[in-house]
Design a protein that fits this description.
Serine Threonine Protein Phosphatase 5, Tetratricopeptide repeat; single chain; TPR_rpt; ten-stranded mixed β-sheet; Tetratricopeptide repeat protein 5; alpha+beta; TTC5_OB; OB fold (Dihydrolipoamide Acetyltransferase, E2P); 16% strand
Length: 354
Protein backbone atom coordinates (compact mmCIF):
# COMPACT_ATOMS: atom_id res chain seq x y z
CA UNK A 1 0.00 0.00 0.00
CA UNK A 2 2.78 2.43 0.94
CA UNK A 3 4.64 1.58 -2.27
CA UNK A 4 1.54 2.31 -4.33
CA UNK A 5 1.13 5.70 -2.67
CA UNK A 6 4.78 6.59 -3.23
CA UNK A 7 4.63 5.43 -6.84
CA UNK A 8 1.58 7.63 -7.43
CA UNK A 9 3.38 10.54 -5.76
CA UNK A 10 6.33 10.11 -8.10
CA UNK A 11 4.04 10.09 -11.13
CA UNK A 12 2.59 13.41 -9.96
CA UNK A 13 6.02 14.86 -9.07
CA UNK A 14 9.02 12.85 -10.38
CA UNK A 15 11.43 15.26 -8.68
CA UNK A 16 10.52 14.02 -5.17
CA UNK A 17 13.91 12.42 -4.52
CA UNK A 18 12.88 11.50 -0.96
CA UNK A 19 10.17 9.26 -2.41
CA UNK A 20 12.74 7.62 -4.69
CA UNK A 21 14.89 6.91 -1.62
CA UNK A 22 12.00 5.46 0.40
CA UNK A 23 10.98 3.18 -2.46
CA UNK A 24 14.62 2.09 -2.81
CA UNK A 25 14.67 1.19 0.88
CA UNK A 26 11.40 -0.75 0.53
CA UNK A 27 12.81 -2.90 -2.27
CA UNK A 28 16.06 -3.25 -0.33
CA UNK A 29 14.15 -4.72 2.62
CA UNK A 30 12.56 -7.17 0.17
CA UNK A 31 16.10 -8.07 -0.97
CA UNK A 32 15.39 -6.88 -4.49
CA UNK A 33 18.80 -5.22 -4.73
CA UNK A 34 18.69 -4.48 -8.45
CA UNK A 35 15.43 -2.55 -8.14
CA UNK A 36 16.62 -0.83 -4.95
CA UNK A 37 19.75 0.33 -6.78
CA UNK A 38 17.67 1.69 -9.66
CA UNK A 39 15.61 3.86 -7.27
CA UNK A 40 18.69 5.25 -5.48
CA UNK A 41 20.25 6.03 -8.84
CA UNK A 42 16.96 7.64 -9.88
CA UNK A 43 16.97 9.83 -6.77
CA UNK A 44 20.51 10.99 -7.53
CA UNK A 45 19.46 11.99 -11.04
CA UNK A 46 16.93 14.33 -9.43
CA UNK A 47 19.10 15.70 -6.64
CA UNK A 48 22.56 14.77 -5.37
CA UNK A 49 21.92 13.86 -1.73
CA UNK A 50 23.75 11.98 1.02
CA UNK A 51 21.00 9.44 1.73
CA UNK A 52 20.99 8.15 -1.85
CA UNK A 53 24.78 8.14 -2.06
CA UNK A 54 25.38 6.17 1.11
CA UNK A 55 22.46 3.80 0.40
CA UNK A 56 23.92 3.14 -3.04
CA UNK A 57 27.33 2.58 -1.42
CA UNK A 58 25.83 -0.18 0.74
CA UNK A 59 23.75 -1.80 -2.00
CA UNK A 60 26.70 -1.96 -4.40
CA UNK A 61 28.60 -4.12 -1.90
CA UNK A 62 25.67 -6.52 -1.60
CA UNK A 63 24.88 -7.07 -5.27
CA UNK A 64 25.77 -10.56 -6.54
CA UNK A 65 28.74 -10.58 -8.91
CA UNK A 66 30.26 -13.14 -11.27
CA UNK A 67 33.90 -12.82 -10.21
CA UNK A 68 36.37 -11.10 -7.90
CA UNK A 69 37.34 -8.51 -10.51
CA UNK A 70 33.74 -7.33 -10.86
CA UNK A 71 33.33 -7.24 -7.08
CA UNK A 72 36.49 -5.16 -6.76
CA UNK A 73 35.08 -2.61 -9.21
CA UNK A 74 31.80 -2.51 -7.28
CA UNK A 75 33.66 -1.91 -4.02
CA UNK A 76 35.67 0.93 -5.57
CA UNK A 77 32.44 2.53 -6.75
CA UNK A 78 30.95 1.94 -3.30
CA UNK A 79 33.84 3.82 -1.66
CA UNK A 80 33.40 6.68 -4.12
CA UNK A 81 29.67 6.94 -3.31
CA UNK A 82 30.41 7.00 0.43
CA UNK A 83 33.08 9.67 -0.02
CA UNK A 84 30.66 11.84 -1.97
CA UNK A 85 28.09 11.46 0.83
CA UNK A 86 30.67 12.64 3.37
CA UNK A 87 31.65 15.59 1.17
CA UNK A 88 28.02 16.74 1.09
CA UNK A 89 27.88 16.85 4.90
CA UNK A 90 31.08 16.32 6.88
CA UNK A 91 29.11 16.53 10.14
CA UNK A 92 27.02 13.42 9.41
CA UNK A 93 28.30 10.56 11.55
CA UNK A 94 26.32 7.92 9.64
CA UNK A 95 27.99 8.88 6.37
CA UNK A 96 31.44 8.60 7.97
CA UNK A 97 30.48 5.21 9.40
CA UNK A 98 29.39 3.89 6.00
CA UNK A 99 32.62 5.22 4.47
CA UNK A 100 34.48 3.23 7.11
CA UNK A 101 32.56 0.08 6.14
CA UNK A 102 33.28 0.66 2.45
CA UNK A 103 36.99 1.02 3.23
CA UNK A 104 36.92 -2.24 5.19
CA UNK A 105 35.48 -4.00 2.13
CA UNK A 106 38.12 -2.44 -0.11
CA UNK A 107 40.88 -3.40 2.34
CA UNK A 108 39.99 -7.08 2.19
CA UNK A 109 39.12 -7.21 -1.52
CA UNK A 110 41.93 -5.08 -2.95
CA UNK A 111 45.21 -6.35 -1.57
CA UNK A 112 45.01 -5.47 2.15
CA UNK A 113 46.89 -2.21 1.76
CA UNK A 114 47.66 -0.89 5.29
CA UNK A 115 46.68 2.58 4.13
CA UNK A 116 43.12 1.37 3.46
CA UNK A 117 42.94 -0.10 6.95
CA UNK A 118 44.01 3.24 8.40
CA UNK A 119 41.44 5.07 6.28
CA UNK A 120 38.70 2.81 7.65
CA UNK A 121 39.81 3.39 11.24
CA UNK A 122 40.02 7.14 10.62
CA UNK A 123 36.48 7.20 9.18
CA UNK A 124 35.12 5.37 12.25
CA UNK A 125 36.95 7.81 14.54
CA UNK A 126 35.55 10.77 12.60
CA UNK A 127 32.05 9.30 12.84
CA UNK A 128 32.33 9.31 16.64
CA UNK A 129 33.89 12.78 16.65
CA UNK A 130 31.17 14.56 14.65
CA UNK A 131 28.19 12.60 15.95
CA UNK A 132 27.84 11.65 19.61
CA UNK A 133 25.31 8.98 18.69
CA UNK A 134 27.91 7.12 16.60
CA UNK A 135 29.73 6.08 19.76
CA UNK A 136 26.63 4.01 20.55
CA UNK A 137 26.57 2.15 17.20
CA UNK A 138 27.35 -1.44 18.20
CA UNK A 139 28.22 -2.19 14.57
CA UNK A 140 30.93 0.49 14.62
CA UNK A 141 32.63 -1.11 17.61
CA UNK A 142 32.26 -4.59 16.13
CA UNK A 143 33.63 -3.63 12.71
CA UNK A 144 36.54 -1.72 14.18
CA UNK A 145 37.33 -4.65 16.50
CA UNK A 146 37.41 -6.93 13.44
CA UNK A 147 40.06 -4.70 11.89
CA UNK A 148 41.96 -4.52 15.18
CA UNK A 149 42.02 -8.31 15.38
CA UNK A 150 43.36 -8.61 11.84
CA UNK A 151 46.03 -6.03 12.68
CA UNK A 152 46.89 -8.08 15.81
CA UNK A 153 45.82 -5.28 18.16
CA UNK A 154 44.19 -7.92 20.31
CA UNK A 155 43.54 -5.81 23.41
CA UNK A 156 41.68 -3.18 21.37
CA UNK A 157 39.77 -5.93 19.53
CA UNK A 158 38.58 -7.48 22.79
CA UNK A 159 37.44 -4.09 24.10
CA UNK A 160 35.55 -3.43 20.86
CA UNK A 161 33.74 -6.77 20.89
CA UNK A 162 32.86 -6.28 24.55
CA UNK A 163 31.54 -2.77 23.92
CA UNK A 164 29.43 -3.92 20.96
CA UNK A 165 27.93 -6.72 23.06
CA UNK A 166 27.08 -4.30 25.87
CA UNK A 167 25.39 -1.85 23.48
CA UNK A 168 23.32 -4.50 21.70
CA UNK A 169 22.92 -7.71 23.73
CA UNK A 170 20.83 -9.30 20.97
CA UNK A 171 23.82 -9.36 18.58
CA UNK A 172 25.32 -12.84 18.67
CA UNK A 173 28.62 -12.20 16.92
CA UNK A 174 30.35 -9.75 19.33
CA UNK A 175 30.32 -12.00 22.44
CA UNK A 176 31.16 -15.01 20.26
CA UNK A 177 34.16 -13.24 18.70
CA UNK A 178 35.29 -12.04 22.14
CA UNK A 179 35.05 -15.59 23.52
CA UNK A 180 36.87 -17.07 20.52
CA UNK A 181 39.68 -14.53 20.70
CA UNK A 182 40.14 -15.05 24.45
CA UNK A 183 40.26 -18.81 23.97
CA UNK A 184 42.76 -18.37 21.13
CA UNK A 185 45.03 -16.18 23.26
CA UNK A 186 44.83 -18.62 26.17
CA UNK A 187 45.81 -21.56 23.95
CA UNK A 188 48.58 -19.68 22.17
CA UNK A 189 50.09 -18.41 25.43
CA UNK A 190 49.99 -21.85 27.08
CA UNK A 191 51.38 -23.69 24.05
CA UNK A 192 54.19 -21.17 23.58
CA UNK A 193 55.16 -21.42 27.24
CA UNK A 194 55.36 -25.23 27.22
CA UNK A 195 56.73 -25.48 23.65
CA UNK A 196 53.71 -27.32 22.36
CA UNK A 197 54.00 -29.97 25.08
CA UNK A 198 56.74 -31.63 23.03
CA UNK A 199 58.81 -33.84 25.33
CA UNK A 200 62.40 -32.75 25.95
CA UNK A 201 63.98 -35.79 24.31
CA UNK A 202 61.87 -35.48 21.18
CA UNK A 203 62.57 -31.75 21.01
CA UNK A 204 66.33 -32.33 21.18
CA UNK A 205 66.04 -34.94 18.42
CA UNK A 206 64.05 -32.52 16.27
CA UNK A 207 66.55 -29.71 16.77
CA UNK A 208 69.56 -31.95 16.15
CA UNK A 209 68.85 -31.92 12.41
CA UNK A 210 68.01 -28.21 12.21
CA UNK A 211 70.69 -26.61 10.07
CA UNK A 212 71.18 -23.93 7.43
CA UNK A 213 69.95 -26.25 4.67
CA UNK A 214 66.46 -25.39 5.96
CA UNK A 215 67.04 -21.86 4.65
CA UNK A 216 66.60 -23.19 1.13
CA UNK A 217 66.60 -20.31 -1.39
CA UNK A 218 67.25 -17.81 1.44
CA UNK A 219 70.90 -18.93 1.44
CA UNK A 220 71.36 -17.97 -2.23
CA UNK A 221 73.20 -14.70 -3.06
CA UNK A 222 70.41 -14.10 -5.62
CA UNK A 223 67.58 -14.39 -3.10
CA UNK A 224 65.22 -11.42 -3.15
CA UNK A 225 63.37 -10.84 0.14
CA UNK A 226 59.77 -9.55 0.35
CA UNK A 227 61.19 -6.13 1.18
CA UNK A 228 63.41 -6.15 -1.92
CA UNK A 229 66.73 -7.05 -0.26
CA UNK A 230 68.94 -9.06 -2.64
CA UNK A 231 71.43 -11.50 -1.14
CA UNK A 232 71.58 -14.43 1.22
CA UNK A 233 69.90 -14.04 4.60
CA UNK A 234 71.72 -14.68 7.85
CA UNK A 235 69.98 -17.17 10.18
CA UNK A 236 69.21 -15.66 13.57
CA UNK A 237 67.95 -17.03 16.87
CA UNK A 238 64.61 -15.81 18.14
CA UNK A 239 66.09 -13.91 21.08
CA UNK A 240 68.39 -11.96 18.75
CA UNK A 241 65.47 -10.65 16.70
CA UNK A 242 64.44 -7.07 17.36
CA UNK A 243 60.91 -5.68 17.60
CA UNK A 244 59.50 -4.86 14.17
CA UNK A 245 61.10 -5.59 10.81
CA UNK A 246 64.36 -7.56 10.83
CA UNK A 247 66.15 -6.84 7.54
CA UNK A 248 68.76 -9.14 6.06
CA UNK A 249 68.10 -12.06 8.41
CA UNK A 250 65.88 -15.13 8.68
CA UNK A 251 64.28 -16.80 11.69
CA UNK A 252 64.88 -20.53 11.65
CA UNK A 253 63.23 -23.23 13.73
CA UNK A 254 61.15 -26.37 14.12
CA UNK A 255 57.36 -26.49 14.34
CA UNK A 256 56.18 -27.68 17.77
CA UNK A 257 52.46 -26.99 17.50
CA UNK A 258 49.81 -25.68 15.15
CA UNK A 259 46.44 -24.24 16.06
CA UNK A 260 43.15 -24.05 14.20
CA UNK A 261 40.64 -21.79 15.94
CA UNK A 262 36.99 -21.02 15.26
CA UNK A 263 36.62 -17.58 13.73
CA UNK A 264 40.35 -17.29 13.12
CA UNK A 265 41.88 -15.24 10.34
CA UNK A 266 45.41 -16.58 10.71
CA UNK A 267 46.90 -20.06 10.65
CA UNK A 268 48.98 -20.19 13.83
CA UNK A 269 51.92 -22.36 14.75
CA UNK A 270 54.73 -22.38 17.28
CA UNK A 271 58.39 -22.52 16.27
CA UNK A 272 61.38 -23.42 18.47
CA UNK A 273 64.92 -22.39 17.50
CA UNK A 274 68.31 -23.93 18.24
CA UNK A 275 68.30 -22.31 21.70
CA UNK A 276 64.93 -23.94 22.45
CA UNK A 277 63.18 -20.56 22.46
CA UNK A 278 59.60 -20.69 21.25
CA UNK A 279 57.77 -17.99 19.28
CA UNK A 280 54.24 -17.85 17.85
CA UNK A 281 53.89 -17.48 14.07
CA UNK A 282 50.65 -16.11 12.57
CA UNK A 283 50.25 -16.74 8.84
CA UNK A 284 47.53 -14.87 6.93
CA UNK A 285 45.77 -15.58 3.62
CA UNK A 286 46.29 -19.35 3.80
CA UNK A 287 44.28 -21.82 1.75
CA UNK A 288 42.25 -24.29 3.80
CA UNK A 289 44.44 -27.19 2.73
CA UNK A 290 47.72 -25.47 3.67
CA UNK A 291 49.52 -26.08 6.93
CA UNK A 292 52.72 -27.16 8.63
CA UNK A 293 53.38 -30.30 10.65
CA UNK A 294 55.14 -30.79 13.97
CA UNK A 295 58.79 -31.36 13.17
CA UNK A 296 58.80 -29.30 9.96
CA UNK A 297 61.74 -26.92 9.52
CA UNK A 298 60.62 -23.36 8.82
CA UNK A 299 62.61 -20.32 7.70
CA UNK A 300 60.95 -16.89 7.85
CA UNK A 301 62.73 -14.25 5.73
CA UNK A 302 63.08 -10.83 7.37
CA UNK A 303 60.57 -11.58 10.13
CA UNK A 304 58.18 -8.98 11.52
CA UNK A 305 58.27 -9.44 15.31
CA UNK A 306 55.76 -8.15 17.83
CA UNK A 307 55.41 -8.37 21.60
CA UNK A 308 51.86 -8.79 22.93
CA UNK A 309 50.97 -7.70 26.46
CA UNK A 310 47.20 -7.89 26.87
CA UNK A 311 44.91 -7.43 29.86
CA UNK A 312 41.17 -7.99 29.49
CA UNK A 313 38.59 -8.77 32.16
CA UNK A 314 41.17 -9.95 34.71
CA UNK A 315 42.95 -12.11 32.13
CA UNK A 316 46.53 -11.43 31.09
CA UNK A 317 48.50 -12.63 28.08
CA UNK A 318 52.14 -12.05 27.23
CA UNK A 319 53.96 -13.55 24.24
CA UNK A 320 56.03 -12.71 21.16
CA UNK A 321 54.92 -13.44 17.63
CA UNK A 322 55.97 -13.19 14.01
CA UNK A 323 53.43 -11.98 11.46
CA UNK A 324 53.55 -13.52 7.98
CA UNK A 325 51.11 -12.00 5.47
CA UNK A 326 51.19 -14.97 3.10
CA UNK A 327 52.36 -18.60 3.22
CA UNK A 328 54.25 -17.82 0.01
CA UNK A 329 56.74 -15.90 2.16
CA UNK A 330 57.69 -19.01 4.15
CA UNK A 331 60.34 -21.62 3.42
CA UNK A 332 59.19 -25.02 4.73
CA UNK A 333 61.69 -27.88 4.78
CA UNK A 334 63.93 -25.87 2.47
CA UNK A 335 61.23 -25.23 -0.15
CA UNK A 336 59.10 -22.30 -1.26
CA UNK A 337 55.35 -22.77 -0.99
CA UNK A 338 53.06 -23.48 -3.92
CA UNK A 339 50.92 -20.61 -5.22
CA UNK A 340 47.82 -22.66 -4.29
CA UNK A 341 48.75 -22.33 -0.62
CA UNK A 342 47.49 -18.73 -0.65
CA UNK A 343 43.97 -17.39 -0.69
CA UNK A 344 42.71 -13.91 0.17
CA UNK A 345 41.43 -13.39 3.72
CA UNK A 346 37.72 -13.05 4.26
CA UNK A 347 36.09 -11.56 7.34
CA UNK A 348 32.54 -10.71 8.27
CA UNK A 349 31.47 -7.37 9.66
CA UNK A 350 28.20 -5.73 10.56
CA UNK A 351 27.00 -3.13 8.04
CA UNK A 352 24.54 -0.90 9.87
CA UNK A 353 21.33 -0.38 7.90
CA UNK A 354 22.58 -2.71 5.18
Amino acid sequence: MAEECLSRALKLDPDLFEAWNILGEQYWKKEDLVKAKSYFVGALKKTKNKVSLRSLSMVLRQLPVADCTTYGKMVLESVDMARQAVQLDVTDGMSWFILGNANVSMFFSCGQNPQLCQQALSAYAQSEKVDGAAAFYPELHFNRATLFQYEEMFGSALEGYSRAAALEPSMKDPPLREKQLLEYLEKVTALAQNKGKVKARRLRTMLSNLNTSALGPCSSPQFRSPAGHVGSLEPRTINSLSHGHNAGVAALGKVVFSLACDGRMAFTFGMVDSEETCIVVMVYNTADAWGVLIGDSVAIPEPQVKRHSITHKDKEFDFRSIRVDSPLLLIVNGKKQNIKSQIAASVSYKPRCE
